[in-house]
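Hi all, posting the design record for the shared folder.

TITLE: backbone redesign
STEP: 1 of 1
STRUCTURE INPUT:
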């Protein structure tokens, strides 16, 4: 089998039949995590048990091979191993090994973890395919623990002022992780209806969550409300509230203005610019391909540093011999 990285509405390792987070339904695909922009109803999918549990029924693959972290699996003549990506519960990087060549696909990845957790491990590889959502230098985020502490202070100040604090963040993954991070400060939560099935799925997938109720009109004093950034009809029914956008996009002033938040916090489940550089360095890759986000920008920055890099999505179809 001749190993190639191929781009055609998704990344593929040619000869293995394996597609990596493809944008369209494929016969056999790796799903790196449960967010709906990555999950498709593939004929067969390779994924972690937690990712399978979190994918909504309407987007669940028709068949699957579940694989835990650090458990090698043979696929044809190659070996694949999944490693935690630190992005959300069940998220995984995929290391593909064939005839001495190692290809690492990160999927959505986050190195620095709050709560004193160890940074995400990056396996060594000859070729790296890395997501570049925040691949511009102005996306540099604060220390996660310091940011969580700042969010907690903001919530406490609002509650002490008899105002309901509302955190705006992604319903699946970010909502549950911010609940866990803030629980050490003694907060209880009220979740907007779109967050409710995600929280239930998270708990069923093995991550117990702190005390929460569904938001239904006015909220009990002292609870922190969490809601997706777009479509805040239920939030607007609250009598007195303040909103805070919790996202790496808080570093983008125009994006923040779109959602009209009273405050912003740059707590992200993706790598910032410096973390992306660290992923590249820790992988030791001789060749880097960027996917998703600021692909051209990040590849250009890497080339300025003497690293062989290009945007994999630059053309509709691009085959690259390893």
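Okay, here is what came back for every position:
SEQUENCE:
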């Amino acid at each position: 089998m001749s190993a190639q990285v191929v781009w055609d509405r998704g990344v593929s390792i040619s000869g293995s039949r394996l597609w990596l987070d493809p944008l369209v339904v494929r016969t056999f695909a790796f799903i790196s995590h449960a967010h709906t922009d990555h999950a498709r109803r593939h004929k067969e999918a390779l994924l972690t048990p937690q990712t399978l549990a979190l994918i909504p029924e309407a987007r669940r693959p028709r068949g699957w091979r579940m694989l835990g972290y650090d458990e090698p699996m043979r696929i044809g003549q190659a070996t694949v191993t999944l490693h935690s990506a630190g992005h959300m519960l069940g998220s995984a990087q995929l290391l593909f090994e064939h005839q001495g060549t190692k290809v690492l696909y990160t999927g959505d990845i986050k190195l620095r973890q709050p709560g004193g957790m160890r940074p995400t491990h990056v396996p060594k590889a000859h070729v790296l395919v890395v997501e570049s959502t925040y691949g511009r230098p102005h996306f540099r985020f604060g220390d996660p623990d310091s940011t969580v502490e700042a969010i907690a202070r903001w919530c406490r100040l609002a509650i002490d002022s008899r105002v309901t604090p509302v955190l705006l963040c992604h319903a699946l993954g970010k909502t549950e992780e911010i609940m866990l991070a803030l629980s050490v400060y003694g907060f209880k939560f009220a979740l907007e209806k779109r967050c409710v099935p995600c929280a239930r799925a998270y708990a069923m997938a093995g991550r117990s969550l702190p005390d929460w109720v569904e938001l239904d009109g006015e909220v009990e004093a002292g609870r922190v409300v969490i809601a997706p950034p777009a479509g805040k009809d239920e939030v607007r029914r609250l009598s007195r509230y303040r909103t805070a956008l919790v996202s790496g996009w808080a570093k983008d002033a125009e994006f923040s203005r779109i959602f009209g938040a009273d405050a912003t916090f740059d707590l992200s489940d993706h790598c910032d610019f410096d973390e992306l550089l660290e992923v590249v360095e820790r992988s030791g890759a001789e060749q880097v391909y960027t996917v998703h986000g600021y692909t051209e920008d990040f590849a250009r920055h890497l080339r300025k540093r003497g690293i062989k890099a290009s945007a994999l999505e630059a053309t509709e179809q691009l085959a690259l011999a390893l």
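COMMENT: The chain has a mean pLDDT of 92.
Let me know if anyone wants the other runs.
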